[in-house]
Design goal:
Length: 95
């Protein structure tokens, strides 16, 4: 099962990379691109997609509340998932 999240207000890829939520949370992997970044808590992974409005995705059995909680705490934002109306109110193509 996949789950997608966004932050309210949105954070940008630049914010994420310049001020990561916790030391070592940005995972250095060859799959990272200008608009994609892997985050880890050491056990599970979460992907960030986009540039101005990030969408975060967790895939398969790789589900953890720790990474979204760290984002909310460190950036002072609310986390909304794809089933909430607010998720769709902040839009940017994530292709």
């Amino acid at each position: 099962m996949s789950v997608y999240f966004r932050t309210i207000p949105p954070i940008t890829m630049q914010q994420l990379r310049e001020n990561p939520p916790h030391q070592g949370m940005l995972h250095d992997t060859p799959e990272n691109t200008e608009t994609e970044q892997c985050l880890t808590d050491g056990k599970t992974y979460l992907w960030a997609f986009g540039s101005d409005v990030l969408t975060f995705g967790q895939f398969g059995s790789n589900q953890s509340a720790d990474i979204p909680a760290a984002l909310g705490e460190d950036y002072g934002v609310r986390i909304v998932n794809e089933w909430e109306d607010e998720f769709h109110a902040t839009s940017e193509a994530t292709d």
